[in-house]
């Protein structure tokens, strides 16, 4: 397996998204309206707000912009290097699961609200069947006694400070074999945690619905297959009302009053000075055919440290619904086991890699064979050594150096002032974007509109968001956080030795139990 040098990738910026990406199962039913979509034949010369990226972050930004009366008169442009939702969101595990005992209570509560926001939008627009939304319990199995004990300590600590959140989590000891089997987990684990309030979905269909709706309502100009090669400050007078940034593409340049980067793992391609703060990470997913005669699993799953894997490299699993029409072999349609992870068994480097065109053979083999030993799948498994894959593919996560998303104004690139005028960032989810990006997107929209319409300064905007519990303090981009993050171990070092949470190295601790999923 690959063993990265801890300092190997610290100064390696991301590439542009590659043109020959591996084939994700989630893209097997593409949205015909959005394929190669360009709302206008040519790029506009100017826009009020440009959103770069079209995953769940970019779609959420578009959703909240186009539904906010303060933005009614604004021209909003979305630029995407490939097709809509062709990056991490269109390649992830389909989880929308809040982490509760792995986070501080304010962050955990924020993630719960994110899941509620996703579910609420799906219910409001009646797209639950189309995007295969399912409310589930998150079942995490621990295969290392020490990590399981650390998780139990974290749950006890959460109960002391936020009993309401703690009541959402239940512990099952590995010695209770009957109870473990009831949750379809194989014997041999140290134990399980069961977390209420999770969801699973077809992420591409969810995002493409949002984007198509914004376009059809005439509120969003989408330009696919339009890579952004640079974002630069507009020189000269920057008084109110003037364009502050110019976005460069092979099809021409566009000036904007505000640019919002929803580029996650690809951020450092445009912001080289953030190369060591948001690091690309190539990770692997699979869509596996279930055993003939099996039934749908009851939960979504995370697996920590199975077969001696690094506990920092969790595996993650959901199962799609079955459909009535049978296949030729007597099995039912659907029911794919959407299984990701296996990074401890990778043959190629993962940290710092930003091309999703390859499938790692070590991870791929691990994913095909592991569920037959870690789970009780049911059905006809006799003699099976591995499951057959419908698709196996890779995607690029954006790993944050302090394990928290970055939301707010972009730090200055030229040292003139603390921040760039008109340039905003929302990303760096460390593989945990689905239960974060929706309300992070809303927060950055509020930032832009509060500055533009309410004439608030950045510090006041940040204070208001935190006071109203619209964003955790630790997510904000501030000079203090930047300074603290630069003192932390690199992403590559933490990937080997453990995540350090938060922006203050003196107050944070290595995270001993977590479930990070794409």
From TrEMBL:
Residue ranges of every copy of the FAD dependent oxidoreductase domain listed in the record: 48-447
Entry superkingdom: Eukaryota
Residue ranges the record marks as coiled coil: none
SUPFAM superfamilies reported in the protein's UniProt record: FAD/NAD(P)-binding domain (SSF51905)
Pfam families: DAO
InterPro entries cross-referenced by the UniProt entry: FAD-dep_OxRdtase, FAD/NAD-bd_sf
Region of interest: Disordered: 1-21, 497-518
PANTHER family: FAD DEPENDENT OXIDOREDUCTASE, SARCOSINE DEHYDROGENASE-RELATED
Protein name according to UniProt: FAD dependent oxidoreductase domain-containing protein
Organism listed in the record: Lithohypha guttulata
């Amino acid at each position: 397996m690959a063993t990265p040098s801890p300092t190997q990738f610290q100064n390696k910026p991301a590439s542009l998204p590659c043109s020959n990406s591996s084939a994700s199962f989630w893209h097997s039913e593409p949205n015909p309206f959005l394929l190669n979509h360009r709302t206008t034949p040519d790029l506009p010369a100017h826009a009020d707000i440009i959103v770069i990226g079209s995953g769940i972050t970019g779609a959420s930004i578009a959703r909240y912009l186009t539904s906010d009366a303060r933005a009614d008169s604004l021209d909003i442009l979305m630029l995407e290097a490939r097709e809509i939702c062709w990056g991490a969101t269109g390649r992830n595990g389909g989880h929308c699961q809040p982490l509760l005992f792995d986070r501080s209570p304010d962050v955990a509560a924020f993630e719960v609200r994110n899941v509620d926001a996703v579910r609420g939008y799906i219910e409001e627009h009646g797209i639950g069947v189309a995007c295969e939304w399912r409310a589930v319990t998150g079942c995490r199995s621990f295969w290392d006694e020490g990590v399981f004990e650390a998780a139990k300590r974290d749950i006890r600590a959460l109960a002391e400070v936020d009993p309401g959140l703690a009541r959402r989590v239940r512990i099952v000891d590995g010695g209770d074999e009957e109870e473990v089997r009831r949750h379809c987990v194989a014997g041999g684990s140290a134990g399980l945690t069961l977390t209420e309030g999770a969801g699973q979905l077809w992420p591409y269909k969810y995002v493409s619905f949002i984007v198509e709706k914004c376009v059809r309502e005439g509120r969003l100009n989408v330009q696919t297959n339009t890579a952004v090669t640079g974002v630069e400050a507009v020189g000269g007078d920057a008084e109110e009302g003037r364009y502050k940034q110019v976005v460069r593409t092979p099809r021409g340049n566009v000036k904007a009053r505000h640019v919002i980067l929803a580029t996650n793992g690809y951020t450092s391609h445009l912001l080289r000075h953030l190369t060591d703060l948001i690091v690309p990470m190539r990770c692997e997913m699979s869509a596996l055919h279930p055993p003939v005669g099996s039934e749908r699993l009851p939960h979504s799953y995370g697996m920590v440290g199975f077969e001696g894997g690094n506990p920092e490299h969790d595996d993650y699993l959901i199962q799609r619904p079955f459909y009535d029409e049978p296949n030729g072999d007597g099995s039912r349609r659907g029911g794919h086991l959407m299984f990701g992870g296996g990074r401890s068994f990778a043959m190629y480097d993962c940290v710092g890699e930003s091309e999703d065109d390859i499938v790692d053979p070590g991870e791929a083999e691990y994913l095909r064979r592991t569920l037959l030993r870690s789970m009780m799948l049911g059905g006809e498994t006799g003699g099976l050594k591995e499951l057959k894959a419908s698709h196996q593919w890779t995607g690029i996560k954006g790993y944050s150096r302090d394990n928290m998303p970055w939301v707010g104004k972009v730090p200055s690139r030229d040292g003139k002032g603390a921040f760039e005028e008109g340039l905003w960032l929302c990303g760096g989810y460390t593989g945990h974007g689905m239960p974060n990006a929706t309300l992070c997107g809303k927060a950055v929209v509020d930032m832009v509109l509060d500055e533009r319409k309410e004439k608030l300064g950045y510090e006041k905007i940040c204070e208001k968001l935190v006071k109203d519990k619209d964003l955790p303090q630790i997510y904000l981009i501030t000079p203090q956080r930047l300074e603290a993050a630069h003192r932390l171990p690199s992403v590559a070092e933490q990937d080997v030795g453990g995540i350090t949470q938060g922006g203050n190295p003196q107050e944070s601790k290595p995270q001993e139990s977590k479930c990070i999923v794409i």
